[in-house]
Specification:
single chain; 444 residues; mainly alpha
């Protein structure tokens, strides 16, 4: 019996991937890369450094209650062969207009926050490798130029290849630092209660709690990217995966991102909480502090691995965010204004380049005025920009959750693609959770 069970497992998880599952893999890993950026390196680390383990339950609940709505985007793409953005129009053109408004409201602040954080890790990377100090402003310009060149030149294929390598390096490095920090002990005690409502709803904490959940694991309005990348992967490979293969890919990325969030909280708690140190306000100094956390756990030699790896994962996030917003904007415009018209490959490429260009310019301007310009940086600053982007994402999350749930009903995907009952029940609770916190925050 044991041999038979072992053979079955090998067939399901080793033999099968060599034949078909590998063709479906990609979008889930790309999703994980998007998650592991700001929400993990910045927000999770801040949570551990400032609150110890008190906010672990918040991170777990955010990952749990957002899960079905992210999964539904991949499910819809597999069922219909189209993105869930197309589904928004199937519901009603007004829903698509609403999503367009949400995208316009969030995209520039989100991409700017990601680029500002990445520029800090880029400056740190260059200082470690080449011994050259460059400003965050210079780094952001270089970064946007590189992202533009990569996306216009290679688009999904290059993006998919980059993320797999980048993600593997940081995953191994983070797990190593995590286990070493546990073995060396830490400064943060275990919380007296894993659900400290007085702390969570305290007037001094609720703002950060909402910002933490906003991008945990990432913004819910970015769920449409899962479907866009799934469709792109099908076109790239010429293989239409089974539903279980698409969901395996998504679940793998989602679980990895959730576990890494806990790792970053632990690093912040064990290495910074109670030490009297605070995470710096500047993006470059913040990046240096994150790398220092790893080196204090692993050893000074590790900066040669961690510095490049941290930059690479943020670079992957920046590329994924720029690509995701360009793709979603392109699809929204096509559905609202160009549907029914014959759009050739060259025209699509021009639309994509135009979207990337506009996004890059406005992203730079927001980062410049809110972070890098000394005359106006006091309006937000590095952490303020991140909190603006993450909070906005959380407030619009209930709308996206409701719409995504509506699109995986029998009417739109067919009976065989309707989610299991337990997932539907989780969806109802998730909608109440997201709506309740959003209303509380806005009213409070």
């Amino acid at each position: 019996m044991t041999f038979i069970s072992f053979s079955y497992i090998c067939h399901k998880f080793i033999i099968m991937p060599q034949k078909s599952l590998l063709k479906a893999l990609g979008p889930g890993i790309l999703f994980a890369s998007t998650c592991i950026g700001v929400s993990h390196l910045v927000q999770s680390t801040r949570a551990g450094a400032s609150y110890g383990f008190e906010l672990v339950v918040v991170i777990l609940l955010a990952n749990l209650f957002k899960y079905p709505f992210f999964e539904y985007a991949s499910r819809y793409a597999n069922a219909t062969g189209t993105s869930i953005i197309d589904g928004y129009k199937r519901l009603d053109k007004k829903v698509l207009w609403l999503y367009a408004g949400i995208t316009l409201l969030t995209m520039f602040f989100v991409s700017s926050a990601v680029v500002v954080v990445t520029s800090g890790f880029m400056s740190n990377f260059i200082a470690i490798i080449f011994g050259i100090q460059i400003s965050g402003l210079t780094s952001s310009v270089i970064l946007l130029i590189i992202c533009f060149a990569v996306l216009v030149g290679g688009k999904y294929k290059l993006l998919d290849s980059l993320i797999k390598v980048i993600g593997a390096v940081l995953l191994i490095s983070t797990l190593l630092a995590f286990f070493l920090s546990l073995s060396n002990g830490g400064t943060a005690p275990k919380p007296e209660s894993w659900l400290n409502l007085d702390l969570i709803f305290h007037k001094d904490n609720i703002g950060f709690v909402i910002a933490l959940m906003g991008w945990m694991p990432t913004a819910l309005d970015l769920s449409s990217w899962n479907s866009l990348w799934t469709v792109a992967r099908i076109k790239q490979t010429g293989y239409r995966p089974k539903l279980k293969e698409t969901l395996f890919d998504f679940n793998f990325g989602y679980i990895i991102s959730a576990l890494l969030a806990l790792c970053f909280v632990t690093l912040g708690a064990n290495l910074m909480y109670g030490t009297g140190e605070s995470l710096p306000a500047g993006s470059g100094a913040f990046a240096a502090k994150v790398v220092e956390m790893y080196t204090s756990a692993i050893g000074d030699w590790s900066k040669w691995v961690i510095g490049p790896a941290a930059f690479c994962i943020m670079f992957g996030t920046a590329i994924a965010v720029m690509d995701g917003y360009a793709r979603s904007s392109e699809r929204i415009i096509e559905l609202l204004y160009l549907e029914g018209k014959n759009i050739d490959v060259e025209s699509r490429k021009k639309e994509y380049i135009l979207s990337i260009s506009i996004l890059s310019i406005i992203t730079f301007l927001i980062g410049y005025f809110l972070v890098f310009n000394p005359d106006t940086a006091n309006l937000a600053g590095f952490k303020g920009l991140v909190d603006i982007a993450t909070t906005t994402s959380f407030i619009v999350a209930p709308i996206v959750a409701i719409v995504n749930f509506a699109l995986v009903q029998k009417k739109y995907v067919g009976k065989e693609f309707v989610p299991h009952k337990w997932k539907q029940y989780l969806s109802y609770v998730g909608i109440v959770f997201l709506t309740g916190f959003s209303i509380f925050y806005l009213v409070y």
